[in-house]
């Protein structure tokens, strides 16, 4: 069996104060091998509520993923120093806005407005944090210890929903990056497990006023978690759930194998 979260001793979940991140953090905490789970997020009261469930094995750290690069670098350094056994990071923070480009004068392009925050939260900060975590994970790899990077993309990263075009674009970018990252890490003991949620019960829609409508059709969070954990425990590289699995079957199946062919071809060409 492939290395998986069932091997992880210390798991950091960024974006753990609500929704998918919170649910996965609690599901991993409940695993029989008793891993330490570090919950990361902006809302201290939510972090405190999670710690209260098990102060021995649930730890917390404040993080704002829109912080400057130096702040994110210091965050990674601090958490590795505090938890040297850290061997898995799940990236669950996200934000979603509607943008209507058929009404271009209403699209907010002001400096660091919603477009940039969406891009930073859903994509750029994740790539930045992965880059800062990788030296630690590669060091573990050299010691024969597996580690895990778990990006959470989306079904809309495969087929976009037009009302949230920037959100879809950030998830498509994260998906593409995850494919390349997995390929580049093939010869290491650092493992990528990309999760593709469908429309799932979440607070992310509250500020858009869409929750009453979407709550009639979304997948309950408990169901999503129940369907996601087997893929994480099996060490799957890609874990599409619900409608995301249907779209993955139509548009993504076989892509990992093609990328591996490209990788091997490139390696062969460079060694001649």
Write the topology of this structure.
Blueprint: E1 10-14, H1 19-29, E2 36-41, H2 44-51, E3 58-62, H3 69-82, E4 88-91, H4 114-142, E5 147-151, H5 165-184, E6 190-192, E7 194-196, H6 211-214, H7 221-234, E8 238-240, H8 243-251, H9 255-270
Parallel strand pairs: 1-2, 1-4, 2-3, 4-5, 5-6, 7-8
GO molecular function: oxidoreductase activity
Protein name: NAD(P)-binding protein
InterPro entries: NAD(P)-bd_dom_sf, SDR_fam
Supply database-style keywords:
272 residues, Rossmann fold, six-stranded parallel beta sheet, 9 helices, oxidoreductase
Written description of the protein model:
The chain has about 270 residues and is α/β, with parallel strands linked by helices. It has a single domain, classed as NAD(P)-binding Rossmann-like Domain (Rossmann fold). The chain is built from 9 helices and 8 strands. A 6-stranded parallel beta sheet has the order 3-2-1-4-5-6. Helix 2 links the parallel strand 2 (about 35-40) and strand 3 (about 60). Helix 1 (about 20-30) crosses helix 7 (about 220-235), helix 3 (about 70-80) runs parallel beside helix 4 (about 115-140) and helix 4 (about 115-140) packs parallel to helix 5 (about 165-185). The chain is globular and about 55 Å long.
Summary, kept brief:
The chain is an alpha/beta fold. It has helices spanning 19-29, 44-51, 69-82, 114-142, 165-184, 211-214, 221-234, 243-251, 255-270; strands at 10-14, 36-41, 58-62, 88-91, 147-151, 190-192, 194-196, 238-240. It has one domain: NAD(P)-binding Rossmann-like Domain (Rossmann fold, 3-Layer(aba) Sandwich), CATH 3.40.50.720.
């Amino acid at each position: 069996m492939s290395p998986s979260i069932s091997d992880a001793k210390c798991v950091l979940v960024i974006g753990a104060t609500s929704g998918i991140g919170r649910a996965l953090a609690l599901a991993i905490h409940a695993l029989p091998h008793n891993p330490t789970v570090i919950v990361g997020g902006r809302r201290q009261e939510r972090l405190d509520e999670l710690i209260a469930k098990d102060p021995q094995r649930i730890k917390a750290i404040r993080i704002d993923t829109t912080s400057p690069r130096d702040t994110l670098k210091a965050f990674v350094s601090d958490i590795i120093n505090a938890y040297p056994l850290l061997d898995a990071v799940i990236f669950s923070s996200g934000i979603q806005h509607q943008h209507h480009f058929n009404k271009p004068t209403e699209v907010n392009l002001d400096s660091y407005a919603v477009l940039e925050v969406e891009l930073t939260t859903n994509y750029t900060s994740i790539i930045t944090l992965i880059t800062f975590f990788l030296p630690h994970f590669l060091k573990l790899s050299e010691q024969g210890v597996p580690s895990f990077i778990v990006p959470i993309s989306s079904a809309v990263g495969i087929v976009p929903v037009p009302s949230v075009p920037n959100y879809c674009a950030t998830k498509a970018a994260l998906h593409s990056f995850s494919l390349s990252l997995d390929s580049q890490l093939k010869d290491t003991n650092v493992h990528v497990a990309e999760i593709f949620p469908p429309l799932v019960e979440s607070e992310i829609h509250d500020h858009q006023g869409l929750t009453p409508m979407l709550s009639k059709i979304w997948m309950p969070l408990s169901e999503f978690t129940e369907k996601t954990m087997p893929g994480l425990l099996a060490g799957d590289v890609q874990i599409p759930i619900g409608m995301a699995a249907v779209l993955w079957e139509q548009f993504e199946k076989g892509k990992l194998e093609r990328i591996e062919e490209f990788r091997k071809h490139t390696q062969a060409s460079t060694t001649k």
